[in-house]
Amino acid sequence: MNPLAAPLPPLGPPVAVDDGPPFDRDAALRLDNQLCFALYSASLAMTKVYRPLLTELGLTYPQYLAMLLLWERDGLGVGELGERLFLDSATLTPLLKRLEQAGLIARSRDTADERRVIVSLTDAGRALRERAHPLPPAILEATGCGLAELAELKARLEALRKRLQAAGG
């Protein structure tokens, strides 16, 4: 059974969840007690820090993520990009279209498989990588965290994402 779809415990005294504190049904419905809200608001704050830096590059945050992936491995298929970025084609296609209109990427059919569309960096797209180098240190500074703390946080978030995906998310 999907633990996220499990019914709430019946009314009555608080019940223990794992080895942690007792489960308080009323407290569980407070906004500030929601993990999802903490993740959502942290994501908004992170995007707000990125926005002025990315504006200088002429990119949105999702476009930046696509460019990061292409800087790692040029010539990816659209399907691979979508899978790695957790984006469906309805979201990814307009994003790639805007990057292509900006002259940063080119899309072409795979000669071995006409159904597959390959995304490649243009010279301008490759050159943009140099201008992006100041972003990671600026974000690191904005977090106020050390590298070890950020590595641990990232690992914990990735583990959480995997558990949520396994639960059907």
Automatic annotation (TrEMBL):
Subcellular location: Cytoplasm
CC terms in the record's Gene Ontology section: cytoplasm
Pfam families for this protein: Staph_reg_Sar_Rot
MF-aspect GO terms: DNA binding; DNA-binding transcription factor activity
SMART domains, alphabetized: HTH_MARR
Matches recorded under Gene3D superfamilies: Winged helix-like DNA-binding domain superfamily/Winged helix DNA-binding domain (1.10.10.10)
GO biological process: response to stress
Keywords, comma-separated and alphabetical: Cytoplasm, DNA-binding, Transcription, Transcription regulation
Keyword Transcription annotated: yes
Cross-referenced PROSITE patterns: HTH_MARR_2
Domain HTH marR-type: 32-166
InterPro entries: ArsR-like_HTH, HTH_MarR-typ, MarR/SlyA-like, Transc_reg_Sar_Rot_HTH, WH-like_DNA-bd_sf, WH_DNA-bd_sf
Residue spans crossing the bilayer: none
Record-linked PANTHER family: ORGANIC HYDROPEROXIDE RESISTANCE TRANSCRIPTIONAL REGULATOR (PTHR33164:SF5), TRANSCRIPTIONAL REGULATOR, MARR FAMILY (PTHR33164)
Protein name: MarR family winged helix-turn-helix transcriptional regulator
